[in-house]
Structure formats: C-alpha cells, structure tokens
C-alpha cells in the first residue's frame, strides 16, 4: 500500500509511523471536533501522518442496552466535517456489505472489525469501493492466515490494504500480542498495531469490557521497537464517561507526551534498522 493513496495525509515524507486515532465512537459533533483538534495540533507539531478514527456505529456490543451510535448518517456527516475542517483523512469501521458504499461517501479508509475479517462479502464490498481497506486481524486468527484476507482485497482490484494487529484471545478475558506476527504480516501489507484494543479485557461478568490503559505506553513502545508501520489508539478527554470502550482508551491529556516519546523511539529504530 502507498500512503499517498490516503487523501489529505500529511507528513508522509518524515519516515515516521502513521497514526489512526480518535474516540471509539462518534458521540456527537462537539466531542469529535474537540478530540480531532487536539490530535491534529499534536501530530502536526511532531510531523506524524494522521488519520482521524471514529466509529459511526457500534454493532458488536456485549449487551442489548449498550450504546450503538447517534444515527448512521448523523455520525458519518460529523466524520466528513472533521475531515473538511482539519484537512485530515478519516477512518470508520463497517459491519455489513451495505455499509461499505454508504460509508465510502464520507470517509477515506474503511475498517473491517476483527470479528468480521473472514466475512468475504464484507471485505470484497469494502475493496470494491476503491477506498483504502484496513483489516483488523481476528482475535482467533494466526498472522499467516491474514494473507488470505489481504488477497480478497487485492483480487478485487484494490491494492490499498493494510493489516491491524489487535491482540489474540488468551483464555476468556484477556488479550496478548505476539510480536512475532509483525514481520510475518508485513510480508503481505503495512502493519498497524492497535494499542488500546490489545489491552482489552473482554467477556467480563458485568457485560462491560474492561481494559488495562496503564500499559498503553508499554504496548505502543513495543510496537515501534518491533517495526510496525503505524499505530492505532483510541483516545477521549473523559474516558471514564465515554459511551464505548472507555476502560481501555488513552486519556487525551496524555497523548502528546506519549507520541513525543514514540517519535524519539522511532528515530532510534530507523537508525539501527
């Protein structure tokens, strides 16, 4: 994949990692704009290629009363406004084939959730839009098996595809990242490490997913050291009251310090690579 395929992506000549970051879900316009403004300011300062992330709906929920969204079109229009206001590309996840064409009218990158990455009709529908496709590695899949998911995209005449590692199920309520899979998957496509979802603790008795946000810095640094091309991090100015995945999101106030450290580490990795 060529990063230049992502419209409005800045700082692509810096040899830095690229960043997909934003809230788990679009909860409203004000919160999305506030988060985007801060991340754009920080990434411009550090010259990090940046894509704003926000789910226009959440289809995979633990309970029927969990937050699923504010309305598809309303959320997608907010994603478009973020892009137009801050001149950055956007990414959102899709869940059924009909979502692909709809979301493609508003965003630049279509993301396939980990639980759905084996769904051929969904992957092909995303690929056929011509948009960049981000394939989340299934929690139940080996790195080697992601070659076939990538091939579904390229066989649909779309070479713009990347893979995101988001951890593998370890028992019932924990995730682990096997960093041996990073070089394996880089043979197939650029590889992103989903730092925050890799620290999830799913399947809690309460029906609300837990997490270990204190380890976000450790996980991100390990990813950079392992040679990932990009990082995925969900962030919010008030994680405790976020409507989705608050337990494993990064507090927005901590983002600049972490990214500054990661840029310094990336420079070291580049020099010894």
Describe this structure in words.
With 273 residues, the protein is of the alpha/beta class. The chain has a single domain (3-272), classed as TIM Barrel. Helices cover 34% and strands 18% of the residues. It is built from 8 helices and 13 strands. The strands form 3 sheets. Strands 1-2-3-4-5-6-9-12 form an 8-stranded parallel beta barrel, surrounded by 6 helices. Strands 7-8 form a two-stranded antiparallel ribbon. Strands 10-11 form a two-stranded antiparallel ribbon. α4 links the parallel β4 (109-112) and β5. α1 packs parallel to α2, α4 (120-128) crosses α5 (146-154) and α7 packs parallel to α8. It is globular and about 50 Å long. The two termini are 20 Å apart. The model has no long low-confidence stretch (mean pLDDT 93).
Detail the topology: elements first, then pairings.
Layout: E1 18-22, H1 29-46, E2 50-53, H2 72-86, E3 90-93, H3 97-104, E4 109-112, H4 120-128, E5 132-136, H5 146-154, E6 161-165, E7 168-169, E8 175-176, H6 181-186, E9 191-194, E10 200-201, E11 210-211, H7 216-226, E12 230-236, E13 250-251, H8 255-272
Parallel strand pairs: 1-2, 1-12, 2-3, 3-4, 4-5, 5-6, 6-9, 9-12, 12-13
Antiparallel strand pairs: 7-8, 10-11
Helix pairs in contact: 1-2, 1-8, 3-4, 4-5, 7-8
Annotation keywords:
single chain; 273 residues; alpha/beta; TIM Barrel; eight-stranded parallel β-barrel; 13 strands
Q: How many alpha or pi helices?
A: 8
Q: What characterizes the major β-sheet?
A: 8 strands, parallel, barrel
Based on CA atoms alone, the radius of gyration comes out at 17 Å
Assign the CATH superfamily.
Aldolase class I
Write down the overall mean pLDDT.
93
The side-by-side strand order for the widest beta sheet comes to 1-2-3-4-5-6-9-12
Shape: globular
Count of the separate structural domains: 1
């Amino acid at each position: 994949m060529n990063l230049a395929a992502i419209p409005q992506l800045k700082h692509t000549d810096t040899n830095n990692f690229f960043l997909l970051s934003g809230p788990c879900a679009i909860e409203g316009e004000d919160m999305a704009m506030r988060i985007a403004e801060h991340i754009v300011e920080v990434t411009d300062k550090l010259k990090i290629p940046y894509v704003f992330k926000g789910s226009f709906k959440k289809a995979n929920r633990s309970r029927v009363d969990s937050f699923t969204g504010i309305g598809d079109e309303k959320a997608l229009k907010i994603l478009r406004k973020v892009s137009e206001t801050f001149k950055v590309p956007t990414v959102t996840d899709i869940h059924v084939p009909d979502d692909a064409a709809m979301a493609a009218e508003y965003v630049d990158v279509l993301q396939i959730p980990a639980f759905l990455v084996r769904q051929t009709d969904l992957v092909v529908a995303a690929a056929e839009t011509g948009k960049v496709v981000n394939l989340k590695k299934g929690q139940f899949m080996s790195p080697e098996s992601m070659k076939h998911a990538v091939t579904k995209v390229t066989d649909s005449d779309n070479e713009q595809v990347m893979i995101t590692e988001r951890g593998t199920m370890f028992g019932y309520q924990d995730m682990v990242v096997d960093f041996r899979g990073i070089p394996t998957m880089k043979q197939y496509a650029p590889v992103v490490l989903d730092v925050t979802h890799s620290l999830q603790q799913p399947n809690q008795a309460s029906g609300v997913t837990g997490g270990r946000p204190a380890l976000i810095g450790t996980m991100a640094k390990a990813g950079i050291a392992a040679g990932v091309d990009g990082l995925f991090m969900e962030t919010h100015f008030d994680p405790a009251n976020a409507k989705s995945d608050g337990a494993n999101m990064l507090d927005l106030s901590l983002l600049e310090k972490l990214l500054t450290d990661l840029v310094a580490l990336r420079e070291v990795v580049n020099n010894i690579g």
